[in-house]
Initiator binding domain-containing protein (Tritrichomonas foetus), 234 residues
Amino acid sequence: MFVEAYDQRQMNVQFVPQAQLFSDPLICKLTYQEQNDFARITTYFQLADDRNKRNFGMTTFIKHLNLIHHFVVRDDGNDALRGIICGILFGSGFLLVNTEKLKRLTRRSKSCVNGCFQKLGFGVYRSVQDLNGFFSGILPEIAPQWINPRHWCIRKANDDAPICFIASLPSDLCAKYGFPVDSYQIVENESNSDASTEPSPSESSFSQKNNQNNNANDYSFFYDIKSLLNRPQP
């Protein structure tokens, strides 16, 4: 994971002030290690050179989503909480997004975040869904006012979306509350059911839908967090 890419003892950086970092009461429900990981992600977005809006291309947007995905999706029973804190949950062929939280984390404008999702092929899912029931089902111990279900929306991958993320939301719960179930990710998995091997969670958190063997279309991102965080501050 990216948080292991550098030695914390050698890190010379001022993290986000505690009052700002822990303004969301849900963060206090994370483990100590998870809080440290979240602090590093927040610091990354504060210091990253590519956070300049003018240079915020789709490759950078995918890289940032992949970075958040590595933090959120660990299959340890706490994925939903981490995703809610970041403002994005990863479903099968769709994303559950709180734009306000996500833009605050990535330090982008609302229009920038929405525009990038649209260009990536993840449009707003207009069918009726029960977000209140979903959040109550996935995190029953969390008070609804801490999650604000009305601030969340589903973005479903269309047929032209070039990527799909490894999902962490239970498909039965998603179907129960009206989330999309006919995504291309499910179709893709079924079409590959006879394959001898399946992608493991340790592999890249997203896959190319088309031309998977074409190196020109492969995304490979290396996060040099150590050099980024240890560089001199202006």
About this structure: The CA atoms of residues 32 and 38 lie 10 Å apart. The chain has one domain: 2-187+210-229. Strands lie at 88-90, 94-97, 122-124, 153-157, 163-165, 206-208.
